[in-house]
Amino acid sequence: MNNIAIIGGGAAGLSAAVNLKRAGREVTLFERGDRLGRKLSATGNGQGNVTNVHMGVEHYHTDDEPLLARALARFGEKETVEFLSSLGGVFLPDARGRVYPAGRQASAVTDLFRRELERLQADVRLNSQVTALARTKGGFSLTTAAGKETFSAVILAAGGCAAPNFGTDGSAFALAKGLGHTVLPLSPVLVQLKTDPGEVRGLKGIRVDASLTVKRKGRPLGTFRGDVLFTESGLSGDAVFRASSYAMAGDEIEIDLLPDVSREQLESALQKGEGADCLLCVVNNGLGRLLWKRCGGDKRRLLALLKAFPVTVKGTLGFAYAQATRGGVPLKEVTESLESRLVPNLFFAGEMLNVDGDCGGYNLQWAFTSAHLVSEAISCR
Fold this sequence. Notes:
- The chain has two domains: 3-187 and 319-379, FAD/NAD(P)-binding domain; 193-316, Elongation Factor Tu (Ef-tu), domain 3 (Beta Barrel).
- It has eleven helices and 21 strands.
- It has helices spanning 11-22, 65-74, 77-87, 106-119, 173-178, 197-200, 238-243, 263-270, 285-295, 299-307, 362-379; strands spanning 3-7, 26-30, 51-52, 60-62, 91-93, 98-101, 123-125, 132-136, 139-144, 147-151, 153-156, 184-189, 193-195, 207-216, 219-230, 234-236, 252-256, 309-316, 324-328, 346-348, 355-357.
- The strands form six sheets. A six-stranded antiparallel beta barrel has the order 13-16-15-14-17-18.
């Protein structure tokens, strides 16, 4: 198996290409855009959150948790840091366990991959979208605008539907379907939530460190601590992105606007002022005025709003604003090495598979993990 096509030049495709070239395999990397790693260069708000030291299957959503757990055990955050360090650079965790390059520049991580692929003299084809993929007697026939080529093995690592401005529009799922695979329903995750506009009117631009609880029919689904940013259409911020993996239209969200302050402390502070002034140095002044108006001057109701500000989820802002995709080819249809159970020598990596992680480096970890498993399996043949 010496002639391998990798479809997709994101984190998973780049990792697989480096691993296979280092193992002495001939690789052709097809990227539909004019640059490699565009989405990788934007990860972690441009700072490059590549993984997380608090790694575990509980941070993921998939159809086969046991397989995913075994995959992470084989290649987890420590192995990822070692691999990235072998490309150059230094990678360090922050206080929350999120691992970044010491220079806090995501584009520099992409540059490490580009430099290594140049050193390895890899065949990289930019502006080369794969429009058709078919089985042949000796492997696969792959079609681009330049014509048809044949390969002994193919790695589908073309990404999901999230952030189409980086060139990931989900069109590669048609290639998987064409070879007989199922594609589970696709939906955006790690995305801003839309709410009833009236519930957030007047709060646009206000950011709070809060605790957010998602409820469905009164039952809590999860609580998430972090930034909550009020927008014109709803909620954003890292706590909201994590909550978006659980929330759906119709769910209720309760926001504890002061999670580090007890009810007793708040009650005492509120008694020292009149009107909206009772919230001075308690919350943002703009937020305080809205809360005071909403509670109708009732301080007991005001206290309840501070500890459980309610909003109703109406949906999300969609794939254009999402960081990841839920759905894709189910893990049930691949082996431990992420090889197709239906088509020998067809492999999947990254967001093409039905695996999505929480906010905090978990989705990039899956890209690196899946790329390692695939390239290791191919290298051993």
